[in-house]
Amino acid sequence: MLAAPLTFILPYAVFELLTGGLEEPGWRGYALPRLQERYTAKKASLILGLIWGLWHWPAFIPVYFSALNEPGSSTTGAFTLAAVQCLGYIFGNLLAVSFIHTWLYNRTQSAFMNLLLHGGSNTLSGYVTSVFPNPALGTVYGIVRWVVAIVLIRFFWKEPEKKANAI
Questions:
Q1: Residue 167 lies in a domain
Q2: Long-range contacts of 118-126 (CB under 8 A, 24+ apart)
Q3: Is residue 128 part of a domain?
Q4: DSSP class of residue 157?
Q5: 116 in a domain, yes or no?
Q6: Count of domains forming the chain
Q7: Tens digits of per-residue pLDDT, 4-15?
Q8: pLDDT digits over 68-106, tens only?
Q9: Cβ distance 98 to 45 under 8 Å?
Q10: Containing domain of residue 58, as a range?
Q11: Does 39 map to a domain?
Q12: Dihedral sign computed on CA atoms, order 47, 59, 89, 17
């Protein structure tokens, strides 16, 4: 059972690094430092997490069409289901991950490290869900991510160093 998915782990990891991971130069390499010029790291994480969540809205289009094809479904019902799932994903997972990425960026000043975290996290969750296809895993991932985020915020948080204004 574990051998078959292992044959796909390297190509899948490369795929995740080149898709999800390549979001990071924009999110953490460009947007986060600029947001942190105006806001605290926590507020910047929240703002960026919400924007990042909306960026993932198209991933829920298949949910919409799948629900739309159910007998007795309506456009409103299908849209509501997709929107609720998207919002659950944003608030249950992505906001926590946004805080984790901010913590990593502020510690390393490296969007590349965030690229590795993003791609590696997607690869691990994709592998685990392929080996153990259980809908409850999304909830477990969300809880684990929030626990990690809260621990980082509570015990290891670091605001970025403010750059001195050039004269």
A1: no
A2: 118/16, 118/20, 118/21, 118/23, 118/24, 119/13, 119/16, 119/17, 119/18, 119/20, 119/21, 120/13, 120/16, 121/97, 122/16, 122/20, 122/21, 123/9, 123/12, 123/13, 123/16, 126/12, 126/16
A3: yes
A4: -
A5: yes
A6: 1
A7: 666 788 888 889
A8: 899 998 999 999 999 999 999 999 999 999 999 999 999
A9: yes
A10: 3-156
A11: yes
A12: negative
